[in-house]
Specification:
The protein is α+β, with helices and mostly antiparallel strands and about 230 residues long. Helices cover about 25% and strands about 40% of the residues. The chain is built from 4 helices and 13 strands. The strands form 3 sheets. It has a 6-stranded mixed beta barrel with strand order 1-3-2-6-5-4.
């Protein structure tokens, strides 16, 4: 189960681009808490504190208790916006939830036992992953941190579907209308004659370019000596 996280916040009365820019200059990140049939609450949080939670790796599928002016609000992060240039967080959306609200979450998948998969360890196959996360429905108090899938015994050509995954009790897939694939063990890629010829041509071109650059540098050095 995911750990419950805590984040201090302050309410904000002024909203809009100007107010948000001012908050960011002060090291704060604008945010909003909405849902649960209540009015949205505009808040701002410390950027450093937010970054610490983001660095846990499971911020988006953890319950976050937001302390807004002494008011403890149970939330689930729904979206974090980042600056395209600096990659700093610029806004956060939190969904207000109850202690046992049914929630939709994206939970990361971890593949285990590669050494026990004949298709990988012996045949040299490659694990082709089509889904790195699972969208799950569960109780807010029992959100899984990750879903581990064992590759033991799988050979080349084997596929893993959602029906093959043992989910924790009370956890179900959000996509229930089809048995979707998660990963497949595919045969190793065998280089063709064309691939080898292309690699040789690229290597030859790179070598010729390096020789030309060396000759040019040597000529410049000789010119400097002459002067």
């Amino acid at each position: 189960m995911s750990d419950q996280l805590e984040l201090a916040a302050e309410t904000r009365e002024q909203v809009g681009k100007g107010a948000s820019r001012l908050l960011r200059r002060e090291g704060r990140v604008p945010a909003v808490i909405y849902g649960n049939k209540q009015e949205p609450l505009s808040i701002h949080v410390e950027e450093k504190a937010l970054m610490r939670l983001l660095m846990t790796g499971h911020f988006m599928n953890s319950v976050v208790m937001v302390d807004a002016g002494g008011q403890q609000i149970r939330t689930l992060p729904k979206d974090v916006s980042f600056d395209a240039v600096t990659d700093r967080p610029t806004h956060v959306d939190f969904l207000r939830i109850g202690a046992h609200t049914t929630v939709h979450v994206q939970v990361p998948i971890v593949f285990a036992d590669e050494d026990d998969a004949p298709g990988i360890a012996k045949a040299g196959g490659v694990l082709n992953i089509t889904r790195h996360e699972l969208e799950l429905v569960c109780d807010a108090a029992d959100i899984p941190t990750e879903i581990t899938i064992s590759l033991a015994g799988l050979d080349v050509g084997a596929s893993i579907h959602i029906s093959d995954v043992k989910l924790p009790k009370g956890v179900t897939p959000a996509i229930a209308d089809r048995d979707f694939a998660i990963a497949t063990i595919v045969p190793p890629t065998v280089p063709t004659v064309e691939d080898e010829e292309l690699e040789a041509a690229v290597a030859e071109a790179q070598s010729a370019e390096a020789e030309a650059e060396a000759a040019e540098a040597e000529a410049e050095a000789e010119g400097d000596k002459a002067e």
